[in-house]
Amino acid sequence: SKSKVRPELHKKLLVTFHAQASDKIRDMVTAMHRGDWSSVAITVHGLKGSMAYIWPDHPAVALAAELEHLADAGQTQTFTEKLPHLISQMRAAFANDQMELNIPTAP
Question: Which one of 18, 22, 65, 92 is most buried, counting C-beta atoms within 10 A?
Fold first, then answer.
């Protein structure tokens, strides 16, 4: 899957996203535990947007969109069940770019 942006910009976006991704996931899990589902939805929306630029054809993008919808709809149990799949898909996408996502698969 090719990015929609030039290779130099793709690399810069990838490095920036990689630097932020683990913290964003941790923040999202913290918000989940607080029951702050609007923050969860906003964070997963941001992840989706970044991934759509960097890996437009990766299944993680569609899964993030689904998770955003679940958070918005208050379907917290389904969100919680599906989040580890998003994390493992993100880990696989980063690995494809020779990068590691430093976060446990099960939050």
Answer: 18
The more confident residue out of 6 and 46 is: 46
Question: Backbone phi, then psi, for 23, in 5-degree steps?
Answer: -65, -40
Whether 107 has a pLDDT exceeding 90, the answer reads: no
Q: How far is CA 9 from CA 2, 33, 53, in A?
A: 13, 35, 10
pLDDT of residue 56: 93
- State residue 7's pLDDT score: 84
- What is the rounded average pLDDT for all residues in the chain? 91
Global confidence as pTM: 0.89
Written as one letter, the residue type at 87 is I
Whole-angstrom distance, CA of residue 35 vs CA of residue 81: 15
Please answer whether residues 86 and 67 qualify as being in contact, where contact means their C-beta atoms are separated by less than 8 angstroms: yes
DSSP code for 106 = -
**57-74 as b/e: b if 16+ CB within 10 A:** ebebbebbebbbebbbee
Return left, alpha or beta for 48; rule: phi > 0 is left, psi -120 to 50 is alpha, else beta.
Answer: alpha
